């Protein structure tokens, strides 16, 4: 490929000049591996971008997409419908926690987040509590890139660049960084008390002004921040006490990533809404969804002051190709028992990643389900450079990892084998030994 072929594409979340000076391209994908255009195999330790949970190139999904594209390419979903969207919603509702069985389709995680926030506001208004509008997120939360998502998100750069519209929100403290929790295996012991900060926010604004709290059960994109034992249960209890909706953003933690259909199942905490995307279709077709409680749905329909109860939707909500891909994906998850497989692999995964504790530059390691974060000490005067170089070196040695700040984030497809886990860990050890 000639260098000027790279010019037109403005790449997302990428230092464009650095990439284009030395492009790392992917050409094919099957099972646990990508293939580069020059034929090198790359072991995928990140499920693409936390999304290809069943592994790449799954034939039943490909076939379902092919079949659907031949039968009906597109169907509007405003005032019309197609059977597959209803079937997919019903199947999905069987997988979501009990009571969260009304499904609104979107095309991405960002849209799922904005949808859930809008539902929260509309719901309270529909029940005559229209002053409940404040939204509570958390520091170091990532909820996509819509203005709603970055408002409740806790990423300083979003506030720095796009802050002018981010009003009406507050943030809980993040749960990370307590010295007692270093190198925690699974859930850290300390920090459940950080949920009590919600009481402080309620005391400040009064619950009559607060609509919802949104958190990722495990905050992944900002560096794998695992919730302390009891933390999510506490948040649920405080929300209940003050009539505040609790939204779990499970865009990453859904679909087996933590060894259960959803993190809500694994933690035994049922939110009022779940945002999902990524693993929903194994990433083969862009799709997202919000699962809302029946109570929210019924309230909205009963309290509607206009024929359209929720003034919201996307041209591609419930797109036929997404529904076909999603149905085939759910069948693979269930037929192959992939969520149970992830849970069974967790101890092996945990031991393997924590064996990196004595690797060069490593200052902390955390894990939950088939997720791990390996935190590196930042290079003096050049934060994030070391991790970025580790990412590039790993790729050149046939391993795809993800880095965020100075943290390596790992999330292999749920079909990963024990020997592939060993390979992931050995390659990272070698890369860290070589990176300055
Ligand atoms: N929410 C969470 C928790 C995410 O991790 C992500 C993406 O990584 C998003 C939302 C945004 O999803 P998308 O990139 O599909 O818009």
UniProtKB/TrEMBL annotation:
Q: What is this protein called?
A: Aspartate aminotransferase family protein
Q: Look at the named UniProt entry and state the broad enzyme category this protein falls under.
A: transferase
This entry's Enzyme Commission designation comes to: 2.6.1.18
Q: Does the keyword Transferase apply?
A: yes
Q: Name one GO molecular function term.
A: beta-alanine:pyruvate transaminase activity
Pfam families given in the database record: Aminotran_3
- Which organism is this entry from? Caulobacter radicis
Record has Transferase as a keyword: yes
Alphabetized UniProt keyword annotations = Aminotransferase, Pyridoxal phosphate, Transferase
Show the coiled coil region(s): none
Q: Which PANTHER family match?
A: ADENOSYLMETHIONINE-8-AMINO-7-OXONONANOATE AMINOTRANSFERASE (PTHR42684), BETA-ALANINE--PYRUVATE AMINOTRANSFERASE (PTHR42684:SF1)
Q: Which SUPFAM superfamilies match?
A: PLP-dependent transferases
Q: Which family does it belong to?
A: Belongs to the class-III pyridoxal-phosphate-dependent aminotransferase family.
State its cofactor: pyridoxal 5'-phosphate
Gene Ontology biological-process annotations: biotin biosynthetic process
UniProt xrefs under Gene3D superfamilies: Aspartate Aminotransferase, domain 1, Type I PLP-dependent aspartate aminotransferase-like (Major domain)
